[in-house]
Amino acid sequence: MKFKCLSILLLVRRLLGAAFFLGFCLLFAGLAVPGVQILPGLQLVPALLSGSVLTLAALAFLTLLFGRVYCSLICPLGLLQDVFARLGFQRRGRFRQAENGLRFALLVLFALALLFGNTILVTLLDPYSLFGIMTGHLFRGLGTALPFAELQAANQSALSWLCAWTLLAFFAGFALLVGREYCGNLCPVGTALGCLSRFALWRVRLDASCCVQCGKCERLCKTGCIQSASGTVDASRCLIRFRCLSVCATGALQYRLPGKRSLSAVAAPEPDKAPVRRRFFQSHAALLAGLFTLSGNKALAGRRSDIRRIAQTPPGSQSRQRFLRRCTGCQLCVSICPTQVLRPSVNEYGIRHFLIPRLDFTLGYCNYDCLRCSKVCPTGAIAPLSLEQKHSIQTGQVRFVWDLCVVTAKNQSCGACAEHCPTLAVQMVPYTGDRGEALSIPELDPELCVGCGACEHACPVEPDRAIYVQGLETHRTARLLPKTREVEQEMEGFGF
Predict the structure, then answer these.
(1) Domains plus CATH for the chain?
(2) pLDDT higher than 60, residue 356
(3) Cys-Cys crosslink for 433: which of 186, 328, 408, 437, Cβ 3.0 to 4.6 Å?
């Protein structure tokens, strides 16, 4: 009966873990599946930055009751490592208790980074953001209609791809070789929850009087929290995976309340699985090389110098300072952006804010009627907006370079910028060419501009656009006309 209860518990954990992991993958693929939008709000660091007291209290209560359930079921990076760990070798190169100093040093560093707004440290230490960087690059745009090659070329840079694949290789290799010891020994979020899980009511306990010190549970543990020689289980490292219970033939290991003997394994240990493993990245090697080529082909070739540009933050961020203080660089908004105008930054905000999203109008534009990024941001860096609010938010102002325009430089008609402007901030006025041609040229009203970048995206001049949007440090309110024009969704080539 006890073994049957344990089997049910293992099955429930695996099903819940698979459901959460699939949900996160669908979310970062940009696929609109009902229910997955709530997952980012369950993450600890986004809840902390957004001030969600209810979520923080629920996670603390869950940890004090059952242990590190968050790390076992809810954290997407932990679930990703579980996938790799299932493919890995059973070689144990564990960190030991002497590394407590390293664990808490990383936790203090992470806390200071949050306190003083060092975004790059928050991004590279927060497990949710790390998962977003990796899977966002792998799955980004699967929910859009763009061809794969065009999509990858349009919204990636070689450096961001390098960062994503380096992180993926690191966590895959770590999990393949030594299991989930990153979660148990290095992750600052796991360390913080581990401090609470020491006092959890239900946790894995070792009865030294029943233990024969066979070491099977210790070898199977993915975080090295079981010490059979001393008869202890480090609850601060335990991820509540229950596999150790399934191999304990004497029932010495139990998941129970203090003083109770409720759930134990009395069945024979599972047979060792064959050590043959397929190399996960072998099938991705050609794809990776191709993606680097594509990302440099269209996205980087012929790019202009952005000396004159101020990195533009998305509508709802309110100001650059507020956005950089709250954003963890999880890449969720980048993944779900239907026009792919949001891209991870490199040095546009400074190296301290590496990979924080920005608007890049050379390869996309901000849809005038789209609110997707404001609906999914888990930290509140992009505040929720109504459609009326977005129509009046000015994230940047249009600028015009007279001598670059094809009308003045080539005496040719164009008007692409005015044709695609949804607010009439750009309109065509009569202009006489060098040889007396009757042409028209853009005339700007920056106060009407909302900074959507449709004009810049449509401009045929390369590499320096004749019309561009200058980002604002603090967002303003645009002046609205009684009637505006709907922006065209399809940007056709103009033959220049």
Answers:
(1) 2-256 (no CATH), 304-477 (3.30.70.20)
(2) yes
(3) 437
